[in-house]
Fold this sequence. Notes:
Elements: H1 2-21, H2 24-32, H3 37-71, H4 88-114, H5 118-124, H6 132-167, E1 178-183, H7 190-194, H8 198-220, E2 225-231, E3 243-245, E4 247-248, E5 261-267, H9 271-275, E6 279-282, E7 294-298, H10 299-305, E8 315-317, E9 327-334, E10 349-353, E11 359-364, H11 372-382, E12 388-393, H12 394-437, H13 439-447, H14 452-481, H15 497-523, H16 527-530
Parallel strand pairs: 5-10, 7-9
Antiparallel strand pairs: 1-11, 1-12, 2-11, 3-5, 4-8, 6-9, 7-10, 8-9
Helix pairs in contact: 1-4, 1-6, 1-12, 2-5, 3-4, 6-12, 6-14, 6-15, 8-11, 12-15, 14-15
Amino acid sequence: MGLVLLIACANIVNLLLVRNAGREREVAVRTALGASAWQLSRQLLTESMLLSLTGGVLGLLLAIGGLRTLMAFVPADLGVLRESGLDGKVLMFTVAVCVVTGMICGLLPALRTRRANLAGTLKQGSKGTGGPGRHRTHNILVISEIAMALVPLIGAGLLLRSFQHLLEVNPGFRVDHILTMEVQQAALSFTQASKLSQQDWIQIQQKQSVQFEQIAAEIRALPGVKETAGIDDLPLSSEFRQASRFVIEGQPIPNAGLRPIAQFRTVSLNYFSALGIPLREGRLFTEDDWKVPRALINETMARRFWPKGDALGKRINLCSLDPKPCWSTIVGVVGNVHQFGLDAEPTFDVYFVGGWTPYVVVRTATEPLSLAVAVTDVIHKTAPDLPVTHMMTMEELLTGSISPRRFSAMLVGIFAMLAVALAAVGIYGVTSYTVSQRTQEVGLRMALGAQAANVRSMILMQMIKFTALGVAIGLAGAFVVARFLASLLFGVGTHDPVTFLGVALVLILVAVLAAYVPARRAMRVDPIVALRYE
């Protein structure tokens, strides 16, 4: 936002310098009639303030509509932004920015007016002098605009490439034709839970497993339903972690703080087939596993602790920090699942079976939400006291998990496009001014035999030279700024050569196109008209 504001300021300064170049004779006459330097500077600062404040008012009008559109893309975990609005603080900030910007933008033209050679201006005529100092200032401002536009453009390019890489990640499970919902049972109170023995817990879990499988079978019988299963926490849904430090039977036991951490999930019998999670080794769960502690692990955990592929039959203790161990036998290895986001590396995952799994997943042959009512009716018919909430498709869940990155890329992209548009306007304005100041020179060249294409190439090459210098400076700045985006990038480095080179070429192309129209206008200069004043 700051870079876009600076580019806008550079455009205003260029605009005022161009206007003042055509008013030098007027300023000289006013001075000769007794106007003081302060009165002239005050007039120029007033014009600059009017431009800035008018732009601020138009910006607020655009913000009223733009803010509503932007809120539609705010991710759920940034819901506080939905309460944002154009309150008194925002208005005061806007006024302050407009006032400061107007004063800064009017300062340089005012100082140049005070240092102008008024006697020379009166002799020169109405067109003004347009000396080399002014041209140098214009060129510096154009180079600065290009350099500043390159930084947000590269930032947007890096974020967009990161988002593209993120979309290419395989989550490890199916996301199409999957309906999800939460069916939560009433939890036991602390007093009730403390009175239960281990055998009581096993019986409760078996009873809950039977109840869940009965409901799943009823849902599975619906037309259009292919599979139904459950899990205690959906992948990609939150940062809720059920983790424990574990030890492996027969392997060295590290100190408590150095023991590896595994994420554990409780699933129903058909969970892996419902989500299309592949079985790599061994077998999946059966009803017999409700009674005996058995586990499935993911392939990341299997490769890390059993690189020779002999994980089946081994036992792990996920209660390694408790006095009483809870050993579980590994009966299978399944594919990796990105539990905490596509940009998060797969963790060591352990799956158990048994008990009530509150999140139900339904794989369908038709559009998932079209079966929402039928599935809800089946659940309420079988268990009227169970509420059905948070119903959505797995694709919606996936979209929500990547929405923060999409929002970041969109915001930076908007500012980058604004920066490029402002830079293009600035290049067009400076090139137009340069052409108008060199009308006599162009006419003389054409009178001496220069071709129109030569004139166009001369003007374009000059602008390309400034653009190349601005791009070089901008690349150096982007190398520094890009390091602050490291936490937002995925699958792409902060100094990605493809992004840097591609953005630089795009900006050079934009600059050439912005300068082409004034350069083409110079080709149509009539040498007789251009030399009339010589």
